Amino acid sequence: MHPGELSEGAASLLPGQIRPVVLWTIDLDAAAEPVSVHVGRASVRSVARLDYLGVQHDLEAGTMHASILLLPEIGRLRRLAARRRHAIALDLPDAEVAPTADGHWTLDLRAQGDIEKANAEISLLTGVCAAKIMLDGNIGLLRTLPPATNSAIADLRRSAATLGIHWPAGVPAGDLIATLDSSAPKVAAFLDDAVRLLRGAGYTPFVGRPPDQKLHAGVGFPYAHVTAPLRRLADRYATEVCLALQAGTPVPAWASAALAELPTVMASSSRRAADLDRGCTAAVSVFLLAGREGEQFQATVLQVDVAKDRAVVLLHEPPVRAHCASAGLTEGSVGTVRLVSVDEATASFVVEAVGDDVPRGTVRLVAG
Fold first, then answer.
1. Tens-digit pLDDT profile for residues 208-232
2. Dihedrals φ, ψ of 96, to 5°?
């Protein structure tokens, strides 16, 4: 993502090297709620080079590094706190482009492990603390998401009923989602539909007074992005605001002047990143299917829109997500499709449904 001088040098955390950082120190009570927060510049020395898979293995083996022994427990307590806020967390596996041993590429369907989830809670906690600092200081940049509308919740409740998922009256969506097993096909379809609740997130700058809508409904609290300043531009500015407010000094003019334009910049960069991600996934999807015409694949139906004659399906192996016609398909069902043709030039492929209960004929699937 960055030149070697940064990624392997000045901005790296290679073991034994001293690096300048922004250090967040957050003291928690017995329920893992913050009782004091301090942010400032510091120098640190990395004492171990860790990754999620390695730490997950250490957790299961009881050999975790001493510096992160409390991470699983703090993560557990923070997830309980999220339930008290009725936060919405969708445990959806991601299809990632990954290298193979023979030098090619494939798609891996990867779900978060316990350690990765716990680490994510630390980032969310820091973002909540950063938001409070900026709201108290009447200047900053929040990551906001308005609460889901009543119609969106009603639509999702109808989806749950269609899929046979029991949703008791009065239970918030986030609390229901937290109890579901995402490996079940019908649940996977429901969670895919529930993504609508998290649409509409954006950045909200403010100077002089807090915004009227300061909530991030997915987090269940005001929230800010500050934990990834090397890969996300907004974090660089929000962090600078927090540093100044904590130190009792004026926010640098270059930082405060940029706040108003950051939402537009971030929206544009997010679209470009999403387009690139879709393009890479599409190219690898077609690469994996080329030459396999005539083969049959199991697939889960994630979404069906009869009015638009459109459905979304997920092949089980390779984990290719695609669009197709909706005729004869039911959300949450598992069926078989046969690959008819692949067009590498347009990153698309054609399949036909297999089974007596599905109308015959071909439909065009575009990786996406």
1. 999 999 999 999 999 999 999 988 9
2. -110, 140
